[in-house]
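Batch job 17 of 40 flagged for manual review because the log was empty.
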Amino acid sequence: MKRALATALLCLAAPLCLAARPAAAASLPPAIAKSGQMNVAIVPNYPPLEFRDPATNKLTGFDVELGEAIAKKLGIRIVWQETSFSQMLNSLHTGRVDAILSGMTDLAARHPVATFIDYLRTGPQFFVQAKRAGEFKSMTDLCGKKVGASRRTSYPKEIAAWSAAHCNGKDIQFVGTDGSADARTQLLEGRVDAAMQGNETLPYLMQLQPDTFALVGGPIATQYDGLALPVDQTDFQKAVDGALDAMIADGSYKALLAKWHLQANGIEKAMINAGQ
């Protein structure tokens, strides 16, 4: 009894009791296993995936809750590191962060520097100001118009490919923006005719700002958002993949989807590097 009590007191004093951690902890990188935490890059400007609650200024969103739930499965905790989107992959490559969880699309072009545990289905979606919805009854009505989207995503190539296939020489004029929030600002200010971002984010934004935006058509491609990890940490990748599958199996993943109105974007099984 005294020995058990002493062990319990030691657990309380430590960041996390190593003896109490799940078996997956054996697959963690040594530095993470020793500290009991992993540093995760995030850019909190992409609701409902990650943003700051206007009332409390605290980080919140689907990605934030998903990441903390995965970390709990692994017996560790997350320390969120806010950074710019353009610096995230470099920070992962140089070891300044252990992972990225910030609505990042799993693209084959990113696989040389990151391995993605895919957790959400997404797709590039055109949208316009609601007051101009009558001008854009189909996606081809966007041909020849200005469309804004984050220049740091795959959207410039997606828009160019769609335009070449459907606009018969009257190409969409792409306007690169500093992220999706900037694209929405330019749309509302009339500097672009339409914008594009992931379809998983738009229902939430349209709920927050009724009668502001209108969708045009459907997603022009199927993609996946992924939690990015270093390419050489295969055991860590399998551990995170297993933790996500455990959430899918126990229903906690489905509950998070429902909380953030993302049921249409859920996946049935965790995937590694499924992006094209």
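Reviewer: the log was empty due to a logging misconfiguration, but the result itself is present. The first strand starts at residue 37 and ends at 42. Unflagging and moving on to job 18.
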